[in-house]
Design goal:
By secondary structure, the chain is α/β, with parallel strands linked by helices. It has helices at about 15-25, 45-50, 85-110, 115-125, 130-140, 150-155, 170-180, 205-210, 225-235, 265-270; strands at about 1-5, 30-35, 55-65, 70-75, 185-190, 215-220, 240-245.
Length: about 280
C-alpha cells in the first residue's frame, strides 16, 4: 500500500510523526509520504521511528496562489532537506500565514464572533505550521462550531466572507524550486471543487513547462468525473498518477491509505528525483 500525502501535528494533523509512522506500520503500508504544510519539521522524528518494511517519502505540501488568486497546493517530495533556497521559501510561506490568520480573526470579530489569536495559539501544537484547521479547532473549543468539517464547509471555506489568501509562490515557482532542490512535484487535489475555485485543464501546461511530475488524481475530495478528467490530463501530459489519503489524524474524516498510488506510477514518479531519497531501514 502506497499513500503519498499525509500530515502530522507539525502542521495541521493530530498525530505526531511517531504516531503516524506506527499507524502506517500496523496497517501494513509499504510506502508512506509525509508532507506537512510548508515545513520539513516532521522528518527527523519520522525517520527515527521507522522500522520493518515501511519506506518513507518525505516532503512538504506547499501553499501556492495562481496569478488570478486560485489557491493551489503543491506536494514537493524527495527534495534535499538542506537546500537553502527551498527552506527559505518554506519559511517565507509560513511567515505569511500569521498576518492572514489575524485578518481572518478580525473579520470574524467584526461579525460578532468571540475569537482571538490567543485562542488559536492555545489549540495549536507547539512548533506546528499555523493554518485554518487551528482556527477551526479554536472555534470548536469556543463552542462557535461543532467540528473542523463544519468549519471548512462554512466559515473557513475558500468562498466564505471570512476567507483571506496569503502571500505565497505561484504553482510554477513552487515547482521550479522543488525541482532545483532535487525533488518531484505533484499537484494535490486540483479539481476538489467543493473547496472553492479550482484550476482549468489549460492551467496544467505552464506547470508542466515548469517541471510538474504528477497529478494527485484519486482523492476523496474529487468526484469520479473529476478523477476521470484528471486521469486523462495526466496521461496526455505523461505525468505520474497518484492516489493519496490526505490523512490528518482526528482532524479530518480521511482514513490512512483510503486512496493509494499504483506501484508502477510510484516507480515512474520516484525515478524523476535527482537522487534516491526514499528512507528505508
Amino acid at each position: 500500500m502506497i499513500d503519498l500525502h499525509t500530515h502530522t501535528n507539525k502542521s495541521d494533523g493530530t498525530d505526531s510523526p511517531r504516531e503516524l509512522v506506527n499507524k502506517a506500520i500496523v496497517q501494513g503500508l509499504t510506502v508512506l509520504g509525509i508532507s506537512d504544510h510548508d515545513t520539513t519539521s516532521s522528518w527527523q522524528e519520522a525517520k527515527q521511528t521507522l522500522r520493518g518494511n515501511l519506506s518513507l517519502v518525505l516532503g512538504s505540501e506547499i501553499s501556492c496562489l495562481t496569478s488570478d488568486g486560485v489557491s493551489v497546493h503543491m506536494l514537493g517530495l524527495l527534495f534535499d532537506e538542506t537546500h537553502a533556497e527551498m527552506q527559505i521559501m518554506l519559511e517565507e510561506t509560513r511567515d505569511g500565514r500569521i498576518p492572514r490568520m489575524r485578518k481572518m480573526i478580525e473579520k470574524m470579530r467584526s461579525a460578532g464572533f468571540d475569537i482571538s489569536m490567543d485562542d488559536v495559539e492555545a489549540v495549536k501544537p507547539v512548533g506546528a505550521t499555523l493554518g485554518r484547521p487551528h482556527l477551526a479547532d479554536a472555534l470548536v473549543s469556543k463552542g462557535i462550531i461543532a467540528s473542523r468539517e463544519e468549519a471548512f464547509n462554512g466559515m473557513l471555506n475558500n468562498d466564505s466572507i471570512f476567507y483571506v489568501s496569503h502571500a505565497a509562490p505561484t504553482p510554477a515557482e513552487a515547482i521550479a524550486m522543488i525541482r532545483r532542490a532535487g525533488g518531484v512535484a505533484v499537484i494535490a487535489h486540483p479539481f476538489a471543487s467543493h473547496r472553492g475555485q479550482i484550476l482549468k485543464p489549460s492551467d496544467f501546461e505552464p506547470m508542466v513547462t515548469a517541471g510538474l511530475n504528477g497529478i494527485e488524481v484519486d482523492h476523496r475530495d474529487q468526484t469520479p468525473e473529476e478523477r476521470a478528467m484528471l486521469r486523462t490530463i495526466a496521461r496526455e501530459l505523461d505525468l505520474a498518477i497518484t492516489g493519496s489519503s490526505d490523512y490528518h489524524g482526528g482532524g479530518k474524516v480521511n482514513l490512512l491509505a483510503e486512496c493509494q498510488t499504483d506501484p508502477l506510477e510510484w516507480e515512474k514518479l520516484e525515478s524523476q528525483a535527482d537522487a534516491r531519497r526514499v528512507v528505508r531501514v
